[in-house]
């Protein structure tokens, strides 16, 4: 191993080269300007130790961004916030449904749909006009995991059976497309196969244009787990009450939020200010 190069230790214990360009890109994607980005990276490099834990680097990056631009610091934590929707995939399914609703779809989750051969439980059934779109959600607890071609093959085969059932009049759906949505990346082979067979994909950084980040950022559909100051139990309470996006939270008021998550009014007000800042509705 080349000792002149700098390495980081990832969450899963593996080691990889320290890549400042990767950090730079993620900061700029979160909305940091060039000066803020370079100042933060210079500070990280100054305090970097070889084989430093990636989580420690991440926390340091957030800390540096907070000093310059609190809203950017929050947005920078989006991927982790989506990971915090776990550990099961149920909340992620509800989150995807909420996203689709904001793009004009009617949605239902956990639907049993008759295929030609067997019945299938579909995570999200979305409807726009007279057409239906069925979404298989693949939530992963490991941020470094990528959905592979086996996932694409599995999802596509399910929707092929459902489509055949539709054509045979075995169900009341008019299936236009099958999609799969994931909180992590997809492999090149999975993406290539999905494109070839017409399987829709909503993933982290894929497709290049309308990916998961796009659908979130475009309408500011940040999950409530992105807000700083919520503990794990409080996040679970919000999810249980179908308060999944910051828009859901802003339908409450600080008093009702404080009562719901068992916190004090000052903390509830801080959470509201963060949500309003992200939604672009914070009054100056």
Please report which band the strand proportion falls in: under 5%, 5-15%, 15-25%, 25-35%, 35-45% or over 45%: 15-25%
* CATH top level assignment of the largest domain: Alpha Beta
Number of E-state strands = 10
CATH topology of the largest domain: Trna Endonuclease, Chain: A, domain 1
Pattern of helices and strands: EEHHEHHHHEEEEHEEHEHHHHH
Question: What count of structural domains?
Answer: 3
Helix share, percent: 40-55%
Largest sheet, spatial ordering of strands: 4-5-6-8-10
In the CATH classification, which architecture of the largest domain applies? 3-Layer(aba) Sandwich
Tell me about the largest β-sheet.
5 strands, mixed
Strand pairing plus helix content: what structural class? Answer: alpha/beta
Report the total helices.
13
Low-confidence stretches: none
> What is the mean pLDDT?
92
What separation lies between the terminal Cα atoms? Answer: 53 Å
The whole-angstrom Rg is 21 Å
Please state the oligomeric state of the protein chains shown.
single chain
Overall spatial form: globular
């Amino acid at each position: 191993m080349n000792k002149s190069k700098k390495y980081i230790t990832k969450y899963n214990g593996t080691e990889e080269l320290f890549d400042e360009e990767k950090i730079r890109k993620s900061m700029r994607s979160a909305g940091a300007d060039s000066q803020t980005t370079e100042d933060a990276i210079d500070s990280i490099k100054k305090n970097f130790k070889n084989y430093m834990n990636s989580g420690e680097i991440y926390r340091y990056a957030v800390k540096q961004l907070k000093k310059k631009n609190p809203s950017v610091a929050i947005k920078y934590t989006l991927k982790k916030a989506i990971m915090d929707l776990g550990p099961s995939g149920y909340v992620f399914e509800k989150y995807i449904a909420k996203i689709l609703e904001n793009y004009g779809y009617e949605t239902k989750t956990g639907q049993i749909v008759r295929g030609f051969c067997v019945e299938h439980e579909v995570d999200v059934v979305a409807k726009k006009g007279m057409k239906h779109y069925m979404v298989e959600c693949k939530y992963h607890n490991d941020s470094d995991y990528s959905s592979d071609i086996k996932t694409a093959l599995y999802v596509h085969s399910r929707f092929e059976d459902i489509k055949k059932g539709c054509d045979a009049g075995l169900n009341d759906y008019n299936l236009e497309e099958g999609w799969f949505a994931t909180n992590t990346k997809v492999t090149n082979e999975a993406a290539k196969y999905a494109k070839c067979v017409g399987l829709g994909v909503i993933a982290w950084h894929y497709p290049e244009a309308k990916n998961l980040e796009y659908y979130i950022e475009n309408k500011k559909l940040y999950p409530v787990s992105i807000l700083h100051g919520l503990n794990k139990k409080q996040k679970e309470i919000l999810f249980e009450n179908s308060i999944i996006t910051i828009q859901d939270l802003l339908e409450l008021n600080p008093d009702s939020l404080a009562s719901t998550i068992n916190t004090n009014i000052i903390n509830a007000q801080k959470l509201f200010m963060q949500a309003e800042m992200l939604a672009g509705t914070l009054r100056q």
